[in-house]
Design a protein that fits this description.
Layout (H helix, E strand, L loop, with lengths): L12 H6 L5 H15 L6 H26 L11 H27 L7 H17 L3 E3 L2 E2 L2 E2 L2 E3 H21 L3 H18 L4 H14 L1 H12 L9 H10 L9 H5 L7 H15 L1 H4 L3 H19 L1 H8 L2 H47 L6 H4 L4 H11 L20 H13 L7 E2 L1 E14 L5 E2 L18 E7 L6 E12 L4 E4 L13 E6 L2 E8 L9 E4 L8 E2 L13 E6 L2 E12 L4 E4 L4 E2 L11 E5 L21
Parallel strand pairs: 5-14
Antiparallel strand pairs: 1-4, 2-3, 6-10, 6-12, 6-13, 6-19, 7-12, 8-9, 8-11, 9-10, 11-12, 13-17, 15-16, 15-19, 16-17, 16-18
Length: about 650
């Protein structure tokens, strides 16, 4: 009766947002339509109990997850009142009571409820583990890249699934519990990860089907052609029993009595009488082994004397009797997996078509594009070429999977360039600059209300560009991270007068607290004192000077002389072959070959960038700029 489908009870919120809606009706139609056609939809109540149970569990999980989010400082952005919190708690208790009531009703109806255990694990236990353990966890690094980057809850669920598969197979072989872990937990995990890769998902289904074809074949014959089950040889079925860890349920009573299968009734009675006299409790006393052996002999005698014909028929092919229902259940669940993979494939193709249509409309509306990455300059000419290319409705375009910001990726840029090249459009080489980070810098904002500049006639901080280049700056304050006092001296390499921003030759090595950290600018007898202000781009490893790129005829490898040419491009760092981290370029200053990143480097491990050693890679990976998040800014000094 194991008729299930891999319903995704516990999809994360992000994955739900990535998927197209309106899919449940089609899936439910494929589930219930065969029963409606046969006319036994009301007689097969046990078949539909899991789907009702799954719906109730989803409601319960949704309410319980709200409680976890309300008590989590990271996910709870608003202060929740006690009355509102208790309201959520009582709603969760009510949903739990509904689930328990449903189970009680199923028990009194004497419905088949064994499979509900699997649905409870898949629909309640695993989602609640994910909701309770939301802290991120990154696996060990291989060349700077983590083996996994999940939450603790996701990691615990995956370990739970693996242990469940192993233990259930050892406990009862390929039976209800094992198939539940496989098709309700393990396979949906794979489906989620391969959602946007339907071809790979299809190949996976074919590989599993090919490996399990012996079980699948027995299941098909058992379900649709039971009269032909005898065609399977005994050794074939024995091999399947070994592979599925199935022990025969029918005991060999002939072996218990030490008889051959052609023994007549007189021989059976004579042997039973002799063994029962030898093992009788009055003779052996309280020996538990002899008592157990006596019960086995009596059970064997009853089966061979009272029901011998039925027993001989059952033992004639015990492997077939054990494997046929298991293989049939496996076949049905494989059918649902194949069916849902095909439905997923169609839905993904529909979503891709819709995304291509949205990109075409975006281009035709003459909206912002990263023309540098496409390879057509100036921007006006690039937009003209793209609009001409998109005039036809059935034009081929890259698909941009839905994300928080739909920007596309490097593969989408390469696909667009390939399509344009196929139409005869001449493109510049793809932009990718590889080189060495020559210097690491750090920027600070100088507060003016406390500063007094004797070298500038007592009028305050200088308003002359690069006035303080070559001066020494001493920073004295506390490290925000450790709370310890720190004092460092560095050399000024750049000064932006309009914003009073100084750039030093190397990072301080600690995070200075804005508004409380003192600075002293000094050159000879000239001295400026004040406080450091808040600066968005003041983190360590956020400002760098670059050596010229390494020559590569495949790419635009040399550094551009155009200001902010690389704004928005991805900036990656490597120590040898080890990946250190990445960030996006906020500003590019060609005169100094300097990049200012949008934030501190997103480091993957403990390795830090080193001037003169660390290698950088800078390239575009967005067709559509992230205007909504961090718009392209031509950062010029505002007038005073």
């Amino acid at each position: 009766r194991l008729v299930l489908c891999p319903i995704r009870h516990d999809l994360t919120r992000e994955r739900r947002q990535e998927r197209p809606n309106g899919t449940r009706r089609y899936r439910l139609a494929f589930i219930f339509l065969p029963a409606i056609i046969r006319g036994d939809i009301f007689s097969s109540v046990s078949l539909y109990l899991p789907f009702v149970f799954g719906y109730l569990l989803r409601r319960c999980v949704r309410q319980c997850s709200a409680i976890f989010e309300a008590t989590d400082d990271v996910y709870c952005t608003l202060k929740i009142s006690h009355s509102q919190y208790m309201g959520w708690v009582w709603k969760a208790v009510f949903e739990l009571a509904v689930v328990l009531t449903f189970l009680v009703v199923c028990h009194f109806m004497k419905a088949e409820t064994r499979i509900l255990v699997n649905f409870f694990i898949a629909g309640f236990v695993c989602p609640m583990i994910r909701a309770a353990l939301k802290a991120p966890h990154r696996g060990p690094l291989i060349k700077g890249r983590p083996l996994w980057d999940e939450t603790w809850g996701e990691l615990v669920v995956q370990i739970f699934i693996i242990l469940g598969l192993v233990l259930s197979w050892l406990y009862q072989g390929m039976d209800q519990l094992f198939l539940g872990f496989l098709f309700l937990l393990a396979i949906p995990q794979l489906q989620d990860r391969l959602w946007w890769k339907p071809e790979k998902h299809g190949y996976l289904v074919l590989v599993v089907l090919a490996c399990c074809l012996p079980f699948f074949s027995v299941g098909i014959v058992s379900r649709f052609f039971p009269s032909y089950l005898s065609i399977f040889p005994k050794f074939y079925l024995k091999i399947l029993c070994v592979l599925s860890n199935v022990q025969p349920l029918v005991k060999d009573y002939y072996a218990v009595l030490g008889l051959s299968r052609d023994a007549d009734m007189k021989t059976i009675r004579r042997v039973f009488r002799a063994m029962s006299l030898e093992l009788h409790p009055d003779k052996v006393g309280d020996d538990p082994v002899a008592a157990e052996r006596f019960n086995q002999v009596r059970e064997a005698s009853d089966a061979l004397t009272k029901q011998r014909a039925a027993y001989d028929k059952a033992i004639e092919n015990v492997e077939l009797n054990d494997m046929a229902p298991r293989c049939e259940a496996f076949m049905i669940m494989m059918y649902f997996w194949i069916l849902h993979s095909l439905i997923d494939w169609v839905q993904v193709e529909d979503a891709i078509i819709a995304m291509k249509k949205q990109l075409r409309e975006y281009i035709l509306q003459d909206r912002k594009l990263d023309t540098n990455s496409i390879g057509i300059e100036p921007e006006v000419e690039c937009r003209k070429v793209l609009k001409s290319y998109c005039d036809k409705e059935d034009v081929e375009l890259p698909s941009l999977p839905a994300r928080a910001y739909t920007t596309g990726g490097r593969e989408d840029i390469e696909r667009m360039r390939e399509l344009l090249t196929g139409c005869g459009v001449e493109l510049k080489p793809y932009i990718e600059v590889n080189g060495i980070v020559s210097h690491l810098h750090q920027e600070f904002v100088l507060l003016t209300d406390l500063a007094f500049n004797e070298a500038d006639g007592g009028t305050g901080i200088s308003s002359t560009e690069d006035f303080y280049v070559g001066w020494e700056i001493t920073v004295d304050g506390k490290d925000i991270n450790t709370g310890k006092a720190a004092k460092e001296t560095r050399k000024v390499v750049s000064y932006r007068a309009a914003r009073r921003v100084v750039t030093i030759d190397s990072p301080l090595g600690f995070d200075a607290e804005p508004g409380k950290t003192k600075f002293v600018l000094k050159k000879g007898r000239d001295e400026v004192k004040g406080m450091l202000g808040y600066h968005v781009y003041g983190h360590s490893n956020q400002v760098m000077s670059l050596d010229e790129g390494q020559e590569n005829q495949k790419y635009q490898w040399s550094l551009s002389k155009e200001t902010n040419y690389y704004t928005g491009h991805k900036f990656e760092l490597y120590n040898g072959e080890t990946y250190i981290g990445w960030q996006r370029v906020h500003e590019y200053l060609p005169a100094r070959k300097m990049v200012i990143l949008k934030g501190p480097m997103a480091l993957m491990g403990d390795e830090k960038p080193e001037a003169g050693k660390t290698r950088y890679k800078m390239f575009p990976d967005q067709i559509i700029p992230q205007n909504n998040a961090t718009p392209f800014i031509n950062r010029e000094d505002p007038p005073e």
